Amino acid sequence: MWRTVIEQKTVLVCFKEGLNEIVGISMNYVTCKDDHFYESICRQNKSENNNRMYDVFRVLFDNFDIYEHYGVDYYMNGAGLAVAQKYRGRGIGLEFLKTRKSFCNMFRIELTSTIFTSSFSNNIADKAGFKLDKINSYEEIRIKHPHLKLPHINSDALTLKSMKF
């Protein structure tokens, strides 16, 4: 899965200045209206947890077509963002999200959108300028989709947020 994302050459990596030490990574990719890239990368990994995650994320897209809503044929999405524990709390995650604007402008991509899974990442997305498209509480997902067997998560909601340029 990750190799397919990396092959697009849209992944951002932050290194400690002057060293080869990775501080953080943002796994970005561009998806097009008819390419089903997201589905294909999720289904490459056959693990039960990965398939459950994909099915939970699909809940956010029920009755919401991002391409139609924003009038685009492609956009930049995020497949994960991580900052090494010893570098957390320094605003690096926020900078990764803010960097998407210049990256998208450079390649004439009008939209970036991501699913945010925790209260912390949702707050950072708001600070970076992302706007809410759709929200589902984890409790609502558990009730409406019991077959997903969602474990307890220390967060209120799963959100889809976007930033148009």
How is this structure best described in words?
- This protein has 165 residues and is an alpha+beta fold.
- It contains seven helices and six strands.
- The protein has a single domain (2-164), classed as 3-Layer(aba) Sandwich (Aminopeptidase), CATH 3.40.630.
- The chain has helices at residues 2-7, 37-44, 48-60, 66-70, 92-106, 119-128, 138-144; strands at 12-15, 22-32, 74-83, 111-116, 131-137, 157-164.
- A six-stranded mixed beta sheet has the order 1-2-3-4-6-5, sandwiched between helices.
- Strand 1 and strand 2 (22-32) form a beta hairpin.
- Helix 5 packs across helix 6.
- The radius of gyration is 16 Å and the shape is globular.
Query: Helical amount among residues, as a percent range?
Result: 25-40%
Please mark out the parts with pLDDT under 50 across 5 or more consecutive residues, or reply none. Answer: none
Q: How many domains comprise the coordinates?
A: 1
CATH superfamily: Gcn5-related N-acetyltransferase (GNAT)
Assembly of the depicted chains:
single chain
CATH topology-level name: Aminopeptidase
Secondary-structure element pattern, one letter each: HEEHHHEHEHEHE
Count helical runs: 7
Characteristic key phrases:
28% strand, 165 residues, 6 strands, alpha+beta, 39% helix, Aminopeptidase, 6-stranded mixed β-sheet
Helices and strands in order:
Elements: H1 2-7, E1 12-15, E2 22-32, H2 37-44, H3 48-60, H4 66-70, E3 74-83, H5 92-106, E4 111-116, H6 119-128, E5 131-137, H7 138-144, E6 157-164
Parallel strand pairs: 3-4
Antiparallel strand pairs: 1-2, 2-3, 4-6, 5-6
